[in-house]
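Task: sequence in, structure out. Protein: Zinc metalloprotease.
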Amino acid sequence: MRGGIRIGSIFGIPLCIDSSWFLVLGFLAVGLSVDYAKLSPSFSLGYGAITAILFFISIALSKVARDLMSKARGVEINAINIQFFGGGNTSDRESKDPFSVFSIAISGPLVSLVLSAIGFTSAWLIAGDIAFSGNPKTIDSLATSLGNIRTIWTIISLKFAQINLIFGVLSLIPALPFDGGHILKAAIWKLTGDRFVAIRWAARSGQVFGILTVILGGLMLPNSFFGGIFLILMGWFLFGNAGSYLYINNLQQALLDINAEDTMTRDFRLVDSEISLREFADKFLLMEAKDANPIYIASSNGRDRGIITSESIRHIDSNEWQSRSLQSLVTPLDEIDTVELKDKVSMIVNLLEQKQLRYLIVRSPVGSVAGVIDRGDVIKALDNKLLWRIPSEYIKQIKAEGKFPSNLRLVEICEQLAEK
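Result:
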């Protein structure tokens, strides 16, 4: 739900529009131009475009209202991204309680309903009670008494009102990413006390509504091509956005469920700290593969003393290798960043990224080395939990590169979890 084309800013917050709007506005302009063809044959497409733009402005205003409420409820907004349907803001974190979720979600539909009332009022001021006759032929006949221009603006006002009314009602559908889905999430969260369960139910509801909307649009195509296409597009966006909520929700829950013990490996070398540097170089360093970058744990008298890096020995004159013991190069475990067995993997991701570490040592309750964790181990643990079926070669690549895949949004999501 990130990105978009920046068109300005509101209260210092960047305002962007999703690129899908160009396609949506084009379809709407052509479809709505039919209503103005008789009254203005030469400029019917222009009036269709005006109505479509008013539709965009309506959605934009409802999203802006939602974001202002978000700021009022303590959610920091980085950007406002006006999408066709669904989430409209880019924030650092989510709401921390069900009431904040509800307050933010209800603000958008309320604005739409107010705009609908303004549209109906404008139509009444232009044409009087006849604007609400509900008979298209009666409205078209206004041209003889009001003139074509006033009749056209009556139609535009009515469509503006109807569009906002429809959008306000649609927004209340209890399915993510609609505002009604967030209201449903807030209600389930309040009842169960579990945010993850609430999002899962609301997102599944969004996927079901998306499929049903696509099917309905397909059934409408023979009788109303543009109406059918509109519903198919709406269902497609609804299903995709609901899937995004579900993906992030499942990933967040996995990051909080998996701990260091579930993630760590024994992929390290245990060496005696009493041996000489020469023996260490001959038995270990020279025997490693060229591209290998192993982790060495020094121990003596049955206790793990610390870590040894292959780089540290390179700074020692080779003439001293025979006389110096490995213990002289040990970095004690208490002087490095370590984690415990029950620490959450979300915290581990944050520590790896903030300190730019290649790996983390996992310590047992007695202080010994229980295992090690690198970025590839984190991805493998998530793969096992979420059944991603990531190829082992790709995990090896992550280990070698020391970077999390950017498309997973893993680092960003872990930062958000740390703020909750």
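The radius of gyration is 31 Å.
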